[in-house]
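Continuing the series of single-chain predictions for the mutant panel. This is the parent chain; the variants come on the following pages.
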Amino acid sequence: MTELKLTDGQRAAINEKDKNIIVSAAAGSGKTMVLVNRVIRIMLEENVDIDKMIIVTFTNKSAQDMKDKIRKALEEREGEMNQAFIKRQMKLLKQAQIKTLHSFCSDMLRENFYYIDNLSPNFKIMPDSTGKIYKADAIDEVFEREYEKMDDSFVYFLQNFAGEKSDAKAKEIILLTYEKIVGMIDGLDWLKQAIDKGPRLDLFKTYLKEGLDKILKEIEDLGLRLNPILPASAVNLIASDYEVILNMRESLSSLDDFNIASKNKKYPTFAAKIKKEIDDEDLVSEIDRKRKAYKADVDKIIGLATNTDSKALDFIREREEILFAKIYELTKDFKETYDKKKSAKDYLDFNDLEQVFIKLLKNDTAREKLRQKYKYIFFDEYQDSNEIQNYIVDKLKSDRNLFFVGDVKQSIYGFRRAEPSLFIAKLDSYEKDSDSMRINLNENFRTDKLILDFNNYIFDRLMTKDMADIDYKDGGHRLNYGKSEEDLTKDARACVKVLDPSVKEEVYIQSLIKDLLKEGYKFSDIAILLRNGTESYKYEEAFKKADIPYFNDISKVSTQASEVGFFINMLKYLTNPNDDLVLMAVLRSVIFDIDEEDLAKIKLSSASYKFYEAFEEYDKDDDLTSKIADFKALIGDLKDKLAILNLYDFANYLFEKSGLYDFLLARDLSQDRINNIDSIIEMMAEYDRSNDNGLYGFVSFFENLEKTRSDSITPTRDLAEGEDLVRIMTVHKSKGLEFKVVILAGTDKRFNNRTDPIVFDEEIGIGIDVADYERKLRISSINRKLINEKKSINDKKEEMRILYVALTRAEERLYITGNFDRTSSSMEKIYQNPNYLDMTSHLDWILAILSEDNISTEFFKGIKIKSDFDKRISLEFIENIDEIDVKYNESLVDLLNDKADSHRLSQIKESLDFTYKGKAQIGQTLKKSVTELAKDFNKESEGYQTFDVEGVRGNISFKKPGFLEEEKTYDPTEKGSLIHKVFQKLPMKVYDEKTLKLELDRLIDKKIFDKAILDLVEIDKLLNFYQKDMVKSLIEENIPKRSEESFLMTYDGYYVNGQIDLIFEKEDEIILIDFKTDRIKRNDAYSMQLRIYKKAIEEALGKKVSKSLIYWYNFKEFQEI
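Parent structure:
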């Protein structure tokens, strides 16, 4: 076997004994090789079998790769090792614990299930799609139970969190809280403690002080640097600014005082006289720029302190107490409901594997058994571990048997709860502990030195201890060139290509790839990396036009994939044929061969503004009529099949019958496209197994799924030998890979600054917005402000690490592209500005850092000055590029400017401002309740107040909370449901007051009602119904009755479901009675509802409804409709 050439760090990592070791392994430093060789050394020197080690990997693919490399290393040493030992290791390797931590937990739980109560050894790992379905069902059940009770705390919870027409946002609060607590060792306990913490005023004031201190330090530094060359007037100007801000800082002992000081602050004016005395245009410009910058920073801090006066804090605290108690109660209920659903099917999800394994480790016998069995623990990619995984390893460890390897600079899985702080803390502690050791692997064996020099220049400045928690330059993280001088290539390049906003990035990349091919590169040498995959379709379309073969490695089981979009639209159309947009999208597809002219012909053939009506009515002697007939025949067939097939069989039938399968077979990347549809079909099957809501439910479920879609970390597909394709992938998927040419595209895209409606932090607690009905706004709690500020900074720290991963994938060529408007104020904001945490894109960072060198003077100042960089490192601004097939991409703006036709422009503006009359029907389900169709709901009459917020009308509605209403009343829905239930449960007989009270007491004894029922119902109003002559007659004649009868029917183009309160069924006629508990008798309000009930009864029972009656409970009278 050839002897390995090792660096000192690699040699130490492989050979060091009797210590816990953490290896900080930079990109391309050979960490996997080190880990494999350490495992082999332990096997050989210490005679430890491979199945006596735990080797934790991040993905299943990484685990298989690790096994393959260990197998190969054993084979290479076959001649120098005992053959029996080798054979045993090869056999044991198949069952060795070289796995993800979840897989390891699963194996250990199956082996040791008898230590855990109620754990079946045959448990199944819940598929992700099934988990989402179960969660959706569980949260619905929790809310249904709450709606039945409708207590004041739940009403206020809805008022604070629900949307105007949906409780989805309120449900999201509970789902987000659940996701937080299941990632913790004792989540419910933490939640209770976090609620008890209350507002963290101490931390908030400290944060404000630190922000102001930082600004004051910047002003001090500015003064120290400029004072020697400034006139006294300018020195006094900067000193006065300092005093104004210092006064605010000193008032922070009280937030009330700080708010007053903020309002009263007044900066001196940078007068023309002072500027004249300075007599240096560049200096004046710098002072002006710096003053604007630190004043803006002060304004941000003042903005953060808005609504933090004593009155506002008291308001928030009082309401938070109610809301937090309800959040805890609902989250606990949801967890129990979801757990029961999983338990019924013997399912464990990934969170359960960790939590149940922690229970196992709390058993002393079980824990000691595992510790004795496993002699060594290796943890690969440790930078992406979390609190629970760290806890598990800590419980399993023995003396000096740990080996962690990773690179904190590549910790990019925050959305999977990765905590890079754990890695950083271990780096620091292992450096100081005599039983432990930190080893740095900084030699890079992947990348040309030119690109390493460029990357080091960027990250020396970006990754500092203050800004990134990583001291890149001096903390053992800098990349060193590890290959030999002979490996250097003159063809290496590091190029920043800044594109004018008018230049389409995907078109420029077309051109760049063509140039690379001329230089001898192959398509398969090139990778396009994107921060996220939402716009990957742009590059696909551009590459198709340019005949560039590609493979899009971004997960596309979403409406972003055209074939999935068509398939889902077909499903949507079957659930609602009245959705114009869906209908047109389906017809316009290549499957049905109906183009824009045909759509226009259909629309113009009818006077109706509804496209679907025009479509139904179209009947002319032309080819289009034939196409429409074929489409209608297909839809009719599909509806017939939908009625008799399960969702899985129906979806497969639709896939083939629609012609989509045959069409995809003829497309490029046909198998990948077919797999996309198969994934949707599998999802439908899983939904159908777990749910009885049918196609309507699945369509709604899929739409919600799409809204919560996040970056996929599914392993990338390896290109087969001979496949010459450009790869398109996210930065996350590129991790661990390398390419000769990397094009990092879309670097101008702003960082995601979305915040959830409820936020959490282990130190701070919980943060929410609280509704202020008086001032008609929502106030963020102190904790929410603090957590959001912390999250914003942490998100940018992760963006730094994402950029590091992207830039370290390249071997020979690195291109960074993005659009940038040089005429905007962005130029001023980034030029020589070291405050990188204030910036909002990767391109901003790169340009700001490069602005410190002469490489950028032409870009920023229009003058070319020699740079210290190698000439193969460049920054170039590209103002225009020729497009391929320009005739199909003519700019409408250019067209208008060329012809200067004001009338045409006016027509286009009128068209663009058009509002479609049928907008309300788009995206709606056809399944509605009778109440939705029939009830004329006036929000303001029900206690709602609609108002403007900052000039935007109709976006927010709040209902007055009960304590603000003049008279305490029960929720109308609550009381109505209660009265209906009483009528349903009371036996149908003639009562007097005494017998009615006795019957109510009996229902209370049977626990059908609580005693509170006696305070809520009014005996005389109940009694009146049973003593009406007509009702007494029906009872005495013993006419059969039905109560609370449910139905589903078609009505006015909708599927309508409802529940009929009471019917008396005679031999040849029906008497229908509906109970109403309204305080105001609206005689015509329910006529449609009763008509629908009448139609449903007559269709179902084949008998005529002779009377349709409303019993007005509060008025003790009948009304015939």
